[in-house]
Queue: 2 jobs
Job 1
Amino acid sequence: MPKVKEKRVGFVIDMTPLVDITFLLLTFFMFTAKFKSEAESEQKFVIERPKSSADTSKIPEKDLAVIKVAFTDSTKVDTAYYYEMTTEKDWLAVREKSNSLTAEQKAKAQIRVTKDQLNEVVNSTYRINSKTKFAIDGDKGIRFKWISDAMDILRKNKFTSFNYVTDKVQ
Amino acid sequence: MSGGGALSGGGKTKRGKVGKRKKIKRVGFHLDMTPLVDITFLLLTFFMFTTTMATPQIMEMTVPPDIDTPVDVKESELMTLLLDDDGKIYWFMAKEKAVATTFNEIKAIALRENLAQKNRLITVLKVGESTAYGNAIKILDQLNLAEVGITEQISKDIDKDGKPTKRQRKFTLLLLDEKDKDKIKESAL
């Protein structure tokens, strides 16, 4: 005897828990999302940071000035200093005050500087906000001379305490 | 999608106030939630892919201020670590001969020497100009790891006020000079 085929008119899945979780995740990711700063979006190079395990402190977000030293192309030969600051007001004032910067440099949020210009901007930074914290963000393959020179510049301008930006060991 | 919208709020009847209007009994209503869920998923995937969880961390560093007057230090309280241009590491106490070492041994050496001379030992790290910056950070990291153990041991000592002794870290970072290079050559003989 053949079974009587039940006619299905449709079925209902309760999607409430799914939507609940989705909203929860959405709000979580929305609140934790941090968008690239103007300086970072101008950046055309990638820094492969050295790994460290001991220090677990996070990078400060306020009154921070970053000196980036990175390979500017894949040949890993060309290097330059890049300078940026997180506090917009100070950064504008610093760029205004540093006379050796070209108009093109002054218009940018992350500027490529020579060693002498770096010295000048660090000096202007000290004059405008001596509480600025410094971070050196260098590629791990860079020659130590570059970092050492940057450290000398900082020390000469009375910033004897600064930070190295590192990545956490996984 | 209709499942989400089936929360029938219209089933409740208001008590007390009875209006003149003819009451329509609502059995429930359907709200098409498909577009809402679509957009939500879209946003969710967007935020999930754009967020980077690992924010960079920092390693603190303090260098001595720029002063012209040299400070005299006892040589016996001086531990020197040399990192040459090829990334090889050597270490010595005072004026002893430089001994080759590896990244993994630094922590143990720093711990041992620091505990032998509590709070008096000055650590000097001399780094070659052409060595990779990552190597210098690796050594600093090892020294920082050793610092945890040192602080712990030193704080066990109780001073005369009954308080644990405070750790005073003495550290400098310099460039490798010719004299150090000779020292490295000497150790290879």
Job 2
Amino acid sequence: MRHVTYEQRHKPDIWNRPHISAEAAIMWDHEIRAMASSHSIIAASVFMATVLPAVLVPGFSVYGTHLLWLYSVSAAVAAVSVSVFWLLGISPPTKKHTLGYKLSRLFRSCLYFFLSCLFFHTVVILYGAPLIESALETFSLAVLLTSLTTLRCLCVLGPNVQAWIRVFSRHGAMSVWDTCLQITVAFTLIGAWLGAFPIPLDWDRPWQVWPVSCSLGAMIGYLTGLVVAPAWIHYHRKQLTYKCK
Amino acid sequence: MRVRSSVFACFILIFEVLGVALFLRGFFPVPVKSSFSSKSKLSDLPAEPLAGSPPNSTRLPQPLFRRVVLMVVDALRDDFVIGPAGSHMPYTRYLVEKGSSHSFVAKARPPTVTMPRIKALTTGSIPGFIDVVMNLNSPALLEDNLIWQAKTAGKRIVFYGDDTWVRLFPKHFMEYDGTTSFFVSDYTEVDNNVTRHLDSTLKRDDWDVLILHYLGLDHIGHISGPHSSLVRPKLLEMDDVLKKIHGSLVSKEAEGSLPYLLVLCGDHGMTETGSHGGSSVPEVNTALVLISPAFKRKAGMERPGEVEQVDLAPTLALGLGLPVPQNSVGRVIPGVLEERSLRDQLRFLHLNGHQLSCLLRDSTPDYQKEAGFEQFRVAEKAHGSWMKLYLEGNTSEVLTNMGKKVLKQYLEALAAMSSALSKQLGKYDMYSMIAGMVFVFQLLLVLLLAMPEALSSAAAVDLPVLSSLLSLPFYLLCLLLASVHVLVCTSAESSCYFCSLSWGLVFAAVAFSSAMFCILISMVTRRLPFGPAVHGKSPVRSSGGEWSLSELDVLLLAGTVGHTLSLAASSFVEEEHQTWYFLLNTLCLAVFQDVCRKYFREQRGSGDEEEHLLLSKDIRSSAHPKQEVVSEKWLALATPPFTLLCCRLLRSLNQTGVQWAHLPDVSHWINSSEHKTVLSLLSALCLLLIYLLVQRRCSLVSKVALALGLLGVYSYRAAVGSVLFPWQRSGRAASKGTVEARFVYVFVLGILFSGTKDLLRSQIVTADAKLKSRGLWEIYSGLVLLVSLLFRAHNLPVLCCGLLIQTLMAQFIWKKLHYDAAQTTIMHYWFGQAFFYFQGNSNNIGTVDISVGFVGLESYIEAPAIFLTALSTYAGPLLWACHLVCYLSSERERSPVAVGHGCYCLALLRSVPAAAYIVLVTVLRYHLFIWSVFSPKLLYESMHLLLTAGVCLVFITMEQSPGSSKS
């Protein structure tokens, strides 16, 4: 496990920071480009996961067969993010290369994934979703949220709770990818949160049915996050500074 | 003038309450009602006028009709029958053009919604908003009305259709079948359910009045508008129904007996999009067709005349030989009478005129000046002399002409009186509303502008009162506003409350408003950078740079603003509890994140500079064993999830709102008789917990009193019969529990008294902070005891969870995380709002539990009943506000101005939604749901504002002046 020092964390005074060298700038550009392309691949996968079933499965629609859409999108995002991040090699290097260690990492990742599903499920129920009725819908939403947020954390940070806590505490980002992770996760959750607002309206629209609006909100938030993250980092690259490893 | 924040906030709130009261007075016009609450009786009718001799007989002329069929088609716009679209109803069209009928465009008054329109049709009055709000608890129509009159006169009434009628007139119908308009998407079944009774009813002969109310057309309008393809078949169906009724009536017509009358009318119209409720022309214009062999046959199509919808009530009443309903403002439709003898016609008009003049006399102070009243007097005299000539056997042409003249005089008088009366009704008093709104907004702006000063460390606001009172603009503004007032009041046609106020009051209001305006201007100039620097070091600018918002602050601000905005949507008003639950959950999660951040960071980064503060604290508290610190950490971490869990459980206790109110909830389950044991155990447990939570801070005497009081609460509930006593015999009949309740009241008063005594002693004799805080907590516990008596047994968990959350949050969150007074106040406010709904309240008047007003009282006594009902309804917000006072004043050593800040924030939190809501209601005053959704919410908002003003008064007394707190 890496040891990290936190001097920078409590000194966010961006004004007194040394200038970034040209070399670093090039590296940054490279990273931002990689981020943008990976994000576009993920966004394309979401698009494909919506369009392909519509072609292949008769009677498919985002509202009508919502759970099918939800799982197809979750699976697509999960598969594509895992492969993209594995190819990019962002996940932290492992010290041991033994098969057993890798297996245990995999196992822990799966466990975290499942725990995160349960966590989201609990939170959604605390927000007022019915406890027994439509439990499947609630759990599907939790799966979607997990594959949009937790899975990404697993890809970028590995099954390492300490690192997660660091990234999600204030001024805790240590690389462009951490910032990107913060932005996408925040956008996804805010999207899902905002998605709950139309539910009490009496418009009787198909997208007001539980959990359509929330999952759509999460999806839209996620896609927005994918676009915003590289753009924001690009425009704020002068102000961003990380205490490197 | 420098005033403390709390005094300032309280002052603003009290004046806002006055402003809102003025607004409410304008928004809910007082209905025109005859001063007698009784109903018109046949024996009260005036005698036929006769000049120069004792009054003639008081008998009514022979009725016009034997049987009446009233066919109401919901949302039957005028052009569906008589306009170009009339071809959809061929039979009706034929009758209108060729048959013996009269057709009219009947103008409905807004709000064009079914229930008030039914009231208008049957009472002839124009129901005001406040009527509906006040009558929500007793849905039956108590006013004098046609149906009651008919029933009293022994007419047998049959009704099929919208069950609103059944609710309005319970036990009035000999036979009825109500259909609900609940499922708007059903437009076939709802009408078939009416028509299926028709054949058997029409065959029979045992009824006098048949009322049908068809809902299908309205439903189609709501689904797809007036031009949809569904409208045509529906109108054809209605046409067939009319044909069937008409055919049957014609076949039953017997020679010699009185004729029948068939009325086809709509209750309101619909807009081009199919909705209704407002005052646009297509919503207001409805069709009215009267068909009877008593009328002349028509040669061809004429342009239909215009009548008021309320004219139908007196017409039907006189047609059936009944007295006109007392509050009717309509006038009889003259065409209906035209085939009768002149004497009868005059007599009918006289009766109608007499009723209108009585109503006018009762409702307007200077009725003698009304033109219509005078005309009626003249006409009555002329009528008397005509009668004299008539009875003398004079049958000359002159007499007929004279009679015609009297008839014309009567008609003019009726028209004038009717319009004078209806001018007072169904209209918003816009001037009062705007005046109230201006007051409230001035105050709100002053409150907002004073924010930096009020929340500064001095917690005092510098109001430039004197300088603005002595300035020229103040006097100019006074003059301007006074002249505007005179101008508006002299030119206004309709009566206006603000104009009817006495001059002194109005002048005070004008002066106050202009003073506020001047203060506002001078405060704005002080805030602006180029303004004259009154105080060189304004607290704003010095602290402006340091203002950074945490996630929690963002959430608190966004939540407050978002909630205010959400009030514009009727669904969000109906389901406001969802908004609050949602915000509260998010708040708890945000707090959880804060707690996590604090404890995990503290644990890990022990070498950090930030930890020095905490370290120094640790040294101070190093006496504590480490065990305690760890357990405290875990308790703090567990508090937000526990709060979330509590909220989730409470939320399923009472389902409120509209959309999901029908779902089964825990309170239903627990209140059913087979779960009485569970309820008993639960309430006993809750009372025990309440005792444990509250007693900690009380003196020994209060502890004993509290324990006995809570025992009394349980025995009260047992006496009422909602819970079981373990040693109680099952056969005991439920009593009112007056003795038990009074027993509890004694202890409540005792605790309150002892608390007040402590407070006074700390204030006057010794400046002992400890004594003061104990006094406060005792008052708080007295309040808790009172609320636990008033709450129903199944609601005790709400109280219990509330106390638990308050204790935990105060212990582990607010103190430990160093939230400032503003943040704590906002959190308290949010919790208070959520608990308001946890108790089962909603924004509907119907959920107010009125039975609370009888706790401990033998009979209904108004003042305590209202007090107790208000207290139990607003128990959640009140308890949280009281907890805020106690908490902030016990935190005085940390921040001496916390109470002032809290009071200011509370005032701001309450006035922002109240002011915004006033504007929203004014904008949406013709909205379809203004009666059912927005008006009750307006009453709730005003009541809450009033209560908050009261709480702020308590704040003032609690806030020590800076001088005394130092000592």
